[in-house]
Design a protein that fits this description.
Keywords: ANK repeat, Repeat. With 236 residues, the protein is an all-alpha fold. The protein is 53% helix and 0% strand. It has a domain of 108 residues: Serine Threonine Protein Phosphatase 5, Tetratricopeptide repeat.
Length: 236
């Protein structure tokens, strides 16, 4: 890291917008990690300085192929989400490794208000394997997110409910060995009983195996989720 870049990082950490402006004017190099740092520090004045100096808000990480853009770091702050969207952040921006978008990550851990906001700004159910990411949720909002998706696009639910993550995509052959699951397997792993029941109602096959011959019940047993185990056994 060159000296200007080090100084820029320190100025961002200190939320010193004046110093950041001076360093950018002096030619300090911008990169994703610095923009992400400013995002996580919630300093919109510094973020605006990056944009004023030509930074593309939808730039992906060059170090982590699973990060589509810095938008994923905003989901704990609705005002920051609004700022990003008003400045052109794309909820459907794909990461390098697979069809995973900022909206995918929102499905996993953002509030309903933020998820709804992303859809208001062009979020698509046809990108990002949203059903799989929503099924991974461990909190009480998981079933609410799944129902929200079902209301928006019931056909997408039916077409994806028994597919492994990445199945049907060019990356599947490369990524499946990392433990790709079906939505019901993710929900069982999360111990999300209501999500498991919802997925069964949508046609999920609880006995489909992943690439390592594991079913949803296997994941529930491994996770110690007794209520999910008991429910799945009633389906045998």
């Amino acid at each position: 890291m060159c000296n200007l870049e080090v100084h820029l990082s320190l100025a961002i950490e200190a939320k010193d917008a004046s110093r950041v402006s001076q360093l950018l004017d002096d030619g300090a190099p911008m990169n994703f990690e610095l923009f992400a740092q400013a995002t996580q520090n919630k300093c919109m004045e510094i973020l605006q300085l990056f944009l004023d100096h030509g930074w593309d808000i939808n730039t992906e990480s060059s170090l982590d192929s699973l990060i589509p853009s810095a938008l994923i770091y905003t989901f704990d702050d609705i005002e920051l989400v609004k700022w990003f969207l008003l400045h052109g952040a794309d909820p459907n921006k794909r990461c390098q490794m697979r069809d995973a978008t900022p909206l995918s990550y929102a499905m996993y851990d953002a509030s309903m208000d933020i998820i709804d906001r992303l859809f208001m700004h062009g979020g698509s159910t046809q990108q990002g394997q949203l059903l799989h990411y929503a099924s991974m949720r461990k909190d009480e909002n998981g079933i609410q997110v799944l129902r929200y998706l079902q209301e928006r696009d019931p056909q997408m639910i039916r077409s994806r409910v028994n597919l492994l993550l990445d199945e049907g995509y060019p990356e599947f052959a490369q990524n499946c060995r990392f433990g790709a699951c079906t939505p019901i397997q993710y929900a069982a792993c999360a111990g999300a009983l209501e999500s498991v029941k919802f997925l069964v109602d949508q046609g999920a096959n609880p006995w489909r195996m992943d690439m390592y011959k594991r079913t949803a019940l296997s994941y529930a047993i491994h996770g110690g989720h007794e209520d999910v185990q008991q429910y799945l056994r009633t389906l045998a």
